[in-house]
Specification:
The complex is a heterodimer of chains A (284) and B (77). With 284 residues, chain A is of the alpha/beta class. Chain A has ten helices and eight strands. The chains are: A alpha/beta (284), B alpha+beta (77).
Amino acid sequence: MSLIEAIGKLISNLPPLINVKIDVKQPTVISTLNIIKDDHSQPYTLNPVDNSCTVNLGKLDAQKKNDFLTSLIEEGNVLLLEKAKSEVDSFRTEERVPENQAIIQFLSSKIPPEDLNIWRAALYLRASFKKGLSAIVTRIKLEIMEKYGDKGRNIANLCTAGYLEEWLIPSYEKLKQAPNDEESAKSSFLKLYMLLVNELPFTVFVCHKMSLVDLRQEIDSRKKYGMDFVNIHGIGEDNVAKIKTVVDEIEKENYSEEKKGNILFVRVGFKKNKTISTPKEPGE
Amino acid sequence: MKNRIVTFSQAAKTEILDAFNLKVDQATGYLIDGQGKIVSSPDGDPVEGRHFAGLKKGSLEIIKSDINSLIKLSDTL
């Protein structure tokens, strides 16, 4: 039974409350179907403007309701909560943006396949962030973290902070320029990528749970990677204040900061250890 | 048409679950089937009632509302 047949069968068993005829042989008659439940709407309505149909479960008896819903699933249709449908539509709209298409294309042949959906979610998160949709950003980030743990959180943060365009993609381009074949460039890139997303070797993202002591420890822990700097990112007044407090206390070679609204990016150059060589005594 | 989306409102959620013999276990908050067994998403995760976002065919696949599940769903549409 097709969608249109299911609706046609349902409606044919109901009193004609509105003056409309459904031709079950014309499957283009109904464009979208929405299911609601309330006590005041009619059992079904058809909107002639967009050919959408609404069925009110609140006005159907149990048997009709069950037959209708099971036939929809049997036919292969997807029953989806309106809010979830909106999210799927928003996600697909963002993913169709050429810049995002290019990024997905780039990543798809270079990172572990199981990471690709994390980046897809992270790109959607970033688009929501750029639009200032803070409630959506908070929820999506939590969902990414719940599903993918620390790696999910790292990818979400790296993506929002622009590390894809500013570090990952340029790193691959450099590797390709070296006298390497494409496969060895990909292999070297994968090692860099894994280190970046699993350990954040030169980046600290400050979150609200992080204390001043935690932040200091996070910064110091990056020294083991042998980089001479660390990038620190924070969003929101509290996190910005934490960064400023801790960075003030650090012995540093150099320092730069960029503040946009309530977003702070700081790069701290670690103080180089001076090795003082003592002249040897003659005959020593 | 295969995999056509039929939307339903939040208010219709319980009716949809009822029609497929599913309900929210009041003690745990998870979705359970007619035998009282907790139902899982295609990823094998138990589904909380508040995270139920829909159904599709395939031994009745439960769709969760989180972005990771919706991305996977999007790839099948």
